[in-house]
Amino acid sequence: TDLKDSYLIPRNIMAEPDYIEDDNPELIRPQKLINPVKTSRNHQDLHRELLMNQKRGLAPQNKPELQKVMEKRKRDQVIKQKEEEAQKKKSDLEIELLKRQQKLEQLELEQQKLQEEQENAPEFVKVKGNLRRTGQEVAQ
């Protein structure tokens, strides 16, 4: 039974410091460091509020951060699905108008590209184009 109960007896694993026995006034005795978090006013107010809520029986949200993130993602996904469904329910008229609008935008982009190419073209290319046009007009 001595071996079974031996683990219940507390043992001093760490050696006792020398400064406890000696009353030497020249030695600087170690002091416990101050925790800046616990001394801060915000921490104290938060701790006091948590204690009051615990006494009242109001528990704070005990959801872990991962669960909160997953719930937020689910909400965002549901909102996105609703928006997509709303877009799918567009009438035939709206769909046709969107197609026409896209075609007009493409035509405008092509015209802008042509104008930019003509403006950026070297001078001899512009003169050559003018000569061709005048030659065609004369032929007609």
Automatic annotation (TrEMBL):
Keyword tags: Coiled coil
Source domain of life: Eukaryota
Keyword Manganese found: no
UniProt cross-references to Pfam families, sorted A to Z: DUF1151
Keyword ATP-binding: no
Compositional bias segments (type: Basic and acidic residues): 65-91
Residue numbers spanned by region Disordered: 56-91, 114-140
Name of the protein this chain belongs to: Family with sequence similarity 107 member B
